[in-house]
From TrEMBL:
This is Uncharacterized protein. Residues 33-53 are annotated as: Disordered. It comes from Bradyrhizobium stylosanthis. It comes from the Bacteria.
Length: 173
């Protein structure tokens, strides 16, 4: 027969185990089935409206570009020359199938289709669909048809990559 001291210990362990299971289920660690027959439609994020068109068209930035970057604005001219020298190994921006452009996001090895997005302030952005400016977007700081300068919105990416300077390469002969 089990002594009362052992019985109390076993009962305490069983109660603690049941309590741990119940608390774990409440914390999101375990998913319980839903008994409702339909789920409510997802709500739009507050404060986001329809995407505004950019004042720069995607076809204006499609092409071959020399690429370099700078942190200090005083280095811009030198960086443009360095980007021009990169045309022997250009960064190619192609047209996407949905009207965007194929480019890399920060820290992504595979390029993907990004959109050109406008904003009420008149600024233009390049980034995935979603709110403008989004964390993965880059702001188009300047664009004159020949030189495109962008800066990532994400502070960490902006610090690491600086101002990205794209200089249009001459057409291939």
């Amino acid at each position: 027969m089990i002594s009362s001291a052992h019985a109390r210990t076993v009962a305490n362990l069983a109660a603690a185990s049941c309590l741990a299971l119940l608390l774990g289920a409440c914390g999101g660690g375990m998913s319980l089935p839903s008994f409702s027959s339909s789920s409510p439609p997802p709500e739009a994020e507050p404060g986001t409206g329809p995407e505004m068109p950019a004042t720069i068209r995607a076809d204006e930035i499609v092409g071959r570009w020399g690429l370099a970057s700078f942190q200090n604005p005083a280095d811009r001219a030198r960086t443009e020359a360095a980007a021009r020298a990169q045309c022997k190994n250009p960064y190619v921006i192609t047209a996407g199938s949905s009207g965007g452009v194929i480019m890399h996001l920060a820290d992504q090895a595979t390029p993907q289709e990004l959109r050109l997005k406008g904003s009420p302030s008149g600024k233009n952005y390049i980034g995935p669909a979603g709110p403008t400016p989004g964390e993965q977007d880059r702001e188009i700081v300047s664009f004159d048809g020949r030189v495109l300068i962008t800066r990532f919105i994400d502070k960490d990416a902006a610090t690491r990559y600086g101002n990205m300077v794209y200089v249009r390469c001459a057409p291939r002969a």
